């Protein structure tokens, strides 16, 4: 893969190709309104979109920044198409997960961490590539959601956690046009090359997907 000056490989997404084509048309005399261009310029690969410090992508989430060593700056979905959500379990407490994701020596972090009471903390912007899947291609195309608890403790997966995580996943799917199915919403264990087993046999996929579909339907009606 060709590297940018920053050393970051970039794969151009479908949306970027469409916008790039529109920009080329403007250069050859196509009539495009100036206000449209002012909204779209940042979607061209290689141009960082405006960012607000502490901003979150999911309504109701609390921002706590992960160490910059645990993620890579990007401009998704302009440079990498987002078409997957990956479900994780922390194998520890909520507080310990937040702490290790802030540790530059840890080398990994997810975009979100969901607590037993349904509280959601966002630690990496969806724009950016989190080191959560153990597979570069999957990192680039996905959003990672950690759930506080242990894979062998079904009691850790509370009603509030399932509901909050389902709303979060439904919102992500709506933002990026991700199909609400098990091909696009997967567990860490399903990532090629992984040695992880989460979310484990006690994660109720049927229940979770039902809740995601219900949340998606409510979002569509809103």
From TrEMBL:
EC no. given is 3.5.1.28
Q: Which Pfam families match?
A: Amidase_2
Q: What class of enzyme is it?
A: hydrolase
Q: Which GO terms describe its molecular function?
A: N-acetylmuramoyl-L-alanine amidase activity
Keywords assigned by UniProt, alphabetized: Cell wall biogenesis/degradation, Hydrolase
Determine if DNA-binding is one of this entry's keywords. no
Under catalytic activity, the entry for this protein gives: Hydrolyzes the link between N-acetylmuramoyl residues and L-amino acid residues in certain cell-wall glycopeptides
Q: Where is the N-acetylmuramoyl-L-alanine amidase domain?
A: 71-200
Question: What PANTHER family does the annotation carry?
Answer: N-ACETYLMURAMOYL-L-ALANINE AMIDASE AMID (PTHR30417:SF1)
Q: State the protein's name.
A: N-acetylmuramoyl-L-alanine amidase
